[in-house]
Specification:
single chain, 92% helix, ATP synthase subunit b, transmembrane helix, transmembrane, transport, ATP_synth_b/b'su_bac/chlpt
Length: 156
């Protein structure tokens, strides 16, 4: 065999193999590489988007936490104010109730003092009549001298 003929045949076979590879093997291989590159790019984009979403979520969570803290503080302050108002109201109600009880007690005491004075006047009038009876050694008629006894009661 001739070396030149072998080279030409090998060149022809190489050329046919190159054409076959370019026509049938290379396009699916390039498509597979392009799809792989696209998947990698999509994955990186999704990872960046997820990282950004995570950061945004963390910021929103922190903002919500801060808002909840502030709201909690406001509610605590409002509860303390309300408790103070309730305590003040209870104090005022207790003071009013105490004043009412004291006034009722004073009125009751006045009534008892007045009643005791009336009873004392009656007793003094009875004693005066008995004393007059003893002095006069005769019975004094209480109904006949009622005006006199009433006048004596008012003087006492």
């Amino acid at each position: 065999m001739n070396l030149n003929a072998t080279l030409f045949v090998q060149f022809g076979v190489f050329f046919i193999l190159a054409m076959f590879t370019m026509k049938f093997v290379w396009p699916p291989l390039m498509n597979a590489l392009d799809e792989r590159a696209k998947k990698i790019a999509d994955g990186l984009a999704a990872a960046d988007k997820a990282r950004q979403t995570l950061q945004d979520g963390a910021k929103e969570a922190q903002a919500a936490l801060n808002s909840a803290r502030e709201e909690g503080q406001k509610q605590i302050i409002n509860a303390e104010k309300r408790a103070a108002l309730i305590v003040d109201e209870a104090k005022n109600t207790a003071a009013a109730e105490a004043a009412r009880i004291i006034a009722a007690a004073k009125a009751d005491a006045e009534n008892q003092v007045t009643k005791a004075r009336e009873e004392l006047r009656d007793q003094v009038a009875t004693l005066a009549v008995k004393g007059a009876e003893q002095i006069l050694k005769r019975e004094v008629n209480a109904s006949a001298h009622a005006d006199l006894l009433n006048q004596l009661k008012t003087e006492l």
